[in-house]
Every structure is written in C-alpha cells, then in structure tokens.
Amino acid sequence: MTHKYSVILPTYNERKNLPVIVWLIANTFNENKLDWEIIIVDDNSPDGTQDVAKQLQKAFGQNRILLKPRAGKLGLGTAYIHGLNFVTGDFVVIMDADFSHHPKFIPQFIKLQETHNLDIVTGTRYRSSAKPALPGATAGGVHGWDLKRKLVSRGANFLADTVLSPGVSDLTGSFRLYKTPVLKDIIPRVTSRGYVFQMEIIVRARSLGYSIGEVPITFVDRIFGESKLGGDEIVQYAKGVWSLFSTV
Ligand SMILES: Nc1nc2c(ncn2[C@@H]2O[C@H](COP(=O)(O)OP(=O)(O)O[C@H]3O[C@H](CO)[C@@H](O)[C@H](O)[C@@H]3O)[C@@H](O)[C@H]2O)c(=O)[nH]1
Ligand SMILES: [Mg+2]
User: Fold this and answer.
1) Which ligand is closest in space to the CA of residue 96?
2) Among 42, 110, 152, 224, which is most buried by a count of CB atoms within 10 Å?
3) Hey, is 181 helix, strand or coil?
4) Subunit structure of this entry (predicted)?
5) Cis peptide before 132, with omega less than 30 degrees from 0?
6) Ligand 2 (ion): which residues have CB within 5 A?
7) 141 CA distance to ligand 1 centroid (A)?
8) Which of 91, 62, 73 is nearest to 14 (CA)?
9) Which of 17-31, 145-159, 234-248 is predicted most confidently?
C-alpha cells in the first residue's frame, strides 16, 4: 500500500513564489511515485496569490491543489489548523512557500520516517547528520540571514532547550513531516499562535511520548517579499517558553 502525503502550504503574498514551489513539490512526489495533494491556505493576500492558486488548480487538477482561503491575515499557527481540516493523506508535510524550505528534503524526511516508523520528522538547521542515522543526508544550515536573525534563532532554541529539554536541535523551524493522526492529536492541545507554535508542538509531542527524528536542512532566506518576524514575536516566544515550562 502506498501512502498519501498532504502538504499544507500557508501563503501570504506569495504570488511570485507559489508557481515554482508547487511545481517543485509536484515533481518531487511524482518522481518518487508517491500520492500527494497540496492544501494552500491563503489569507486573502492583497497581491493576488489566490488567482495564481486557481491557475495551478487548472494545471494540476483540483484533487491535487486544494485552495482553502480565509478572509484575512489570521496568522501561521491557525493557518495550519485550518489546513489540517482538509487533509486526506496519511502524512502531513508543513513547509513555507517562499523557498526557505526546499522540497528536495521531503524524500529524506519520508525515508527516515519509514526506516524507524517515526511519528514526526523535523528538519533541522542545527545538526550536521540525521537522527536516527540516515545514510546520504548532509549538513544543515542557514543562508541569507543577518547576524541578528541568526542570534535570535539560536537564542530561541537555546532558551527552549534549556528550560524544556525536549531533545530536538531545531525547535522553531516548521519544515516537518507528521503522521496525520499524530498532528490531529497534538494540535488541539497547542495554545500559542505565533512563532512559538512550532516549538510548542515539539514540546507537547515529546510529553505525549511521540517519536521524533531530525533531518538536516539548509534554510535559505526568501528572495521575494518579506518575513513577518518582529520584536513582538520575540517577546511572545519567551512568554510561550515560560508558560510551557509551568504546564508541561
Ligand atoms: N495563511 C497565512 N500564511 C502566512 C501568514 N504569515 C506568514 N505566512 C506564510 O508562512 C510562511 C512563512 O512565513 P515567513 O514570513 O516567510 O516566515 P519566516 O520569518 O521566514 O519564518 C520561518 O522560519 C521560522 C524559523 O526560523 C519559523 O518559525 C516560521 O514558521 C517560518 O518557517 C510563508 O509561506 C508565508 O507566506 C499568515 O498570517 N497567514
Ligand atoms: Mg520566510
């Protein structure tokens, strides 16, 4: 029996990125002879992302590209929750639409998952080899971030790892593969909504006893458009770590 993979792709002003990322994802699954669908959760982007998504539906078919828009910009965390309602696959892949997450890593996620029957496989920028071991996987890293953003990311991971020690090297990244029932079990328990969301998922997954593997990825900063990370998100993150510390 072959599995089906559902990619949740949240978009906000990704008109320029969407066609190529969708094409790359489609190719990756087709070349590996895997069944797939992409669920685009667009928050009424003013740049016309949804028009592009509709074109892609015509090109690839409505069973492959699902457009599940929302009325306005409601944030990344709830975009995943919304997308998850429409998933028909056995596995969910979550990734960004701006090429920070390259689809070429998806087959490695799948291979690691299959080899060890893992519940979650997360991409990591902060390990040089897969965990558990996966022959052929290469070093991860970040490209295109300035020193400040690198320090924020390292600091965020260090803080959460020190306070909560979930044993995962990259807690704030969102490029991951989940067993669908596992994600459906965890998501309702997650209370944060901003950048903390990714970290809280892993911390909760650990406390529920789910198995987590890591595959090194290279994270490349976006070329088109802007990141939505601001000072307020950093404060929210620290608060999130603290509240998890007292509840998990
Ligand atoms: N639907 C929807 N999509 C959104 C929203 N905000 C951002 N997105 C989409 O979510 C993806 C990531 O947004 P970015 O703004 O590019 O995030 P980033 O700063 O590059 O952050 C990335 O790296 C962080 C770790 O360092 C991650 O924590 C974060 O989840 C993301 O992967 C992109 O596809 C973007 O269009 C929103 O409110 N609604
Ligand atoms: Mg980005």
Assistant:
1) 1
2) 42
3) helix
4) Component of the dolichol-phosphate mannose (DPM) synthase complex.
5) yes
6) 98, 100, 222
7) 18
8) 73
9) 17-31
